[in-house]
Amino acid sequence: MTNQQILDICEILSCKDNFIIIPHSNPDGDAIGSSLAIFNLLKKMSKKCRILCNDPFPKNFEFLSKNSVKKLDDDIFELASSYDSNLHISKNEFILSVDVADRDLLGKSLKKLVNIDMSIDHHHSCKIFSTYSFVDESASATTEIIYEVVKSLKLLDLEIAKCIYTGILTDTGGFRHPNVTPKTHEIVAQLLKIGVNNSFISKNIFDSKTKEQMKLNYFVLGSLEFFFDQKCAMIVITKKMMLESNTNKEDAHCFSCIPRQIKSVLVGISIREEDENFYKISLRTENPINAANLCEKFGGGGHINAAGCAISGTLEDVKKKVLNEVKKNLY
Ligand SMILES: [Mn+2]
Prior knowledge:
Strand order of the largest sheet: 3-4-2-1-5-6-7
Number of strands: 13
Number of helices: 11
CATH superfamily of the largest domain: inorganic pyrophosphatase (n-terminal core)
Largest sheet: 7 strands, mixed
Structural class: alpha/beta
Shape: globular
Distance between the termini: 36 Å
Radius of gyration: 19 Å
CATH architecture of the largest domain: Alpha-Beta Complex
Bound molecules: manganese (II) ion
């Protein structure tokens, strides 16, 4: 992102008074961190602001927010602020999406309701769907871009720093992915200097599993299969597994990285049953396999080494479709 673009974002935030922030559906640490960082920033600027999301606030990020979550609709949640919770969106509310690469990723209910005024994102596969669009593919996380905005406004504090750190920590897989740059570490150094407790945040995000989640882990590992000379590994998370372990789809997000943890594996696939004959796919790849390109074949997208898509059909059909595409990329 150029300095001018950062100044443009600051200018827009300064001249509007009433905001709605929307992260992508099934929000991850970067989507939550970005939303809360902007939320805290706008509060400091004495602006009205609320966060709407197409899915509930993930439990393992609750340490970032003292706000409660209110259900506004079958699918839409608000991270409740001082604002009156309601689904009515007034004309003077400026709608900002964060970490959203495509309109569809707002979630099926929210995307029908809103037009996005401004978008801040870092996905390679980002499509322009808003009036103002700020995309920086070189940023490891959307919160890296938000850091520049907050710094430029001279409003960085510990609350905001925690949110920014969470986005970077999760989107870099704990600083392990190739998206980490010298700038990532420079930003993190500044965040630690103002008091971010990195081990507390890591413990909350990576090492706070429940007994139920461990049971689900056990079932999911039982589904592990190998393909193409062990260059590809696949796990499946079914509704039956979740039922038997007393978990839900929120508990099933942490499995995407497991297949690629195996030494020989270049493509790790996790397939989660979302509905009858409808599956969500997460791909994790090693270079030179491009996960985003692979998922785009099915209408999805993401990053070079981490991407996702959704496919309809029976589990066997879905497996075949994905493996077919993977095979083309491997040979
Ligand atoms: Mn992100």
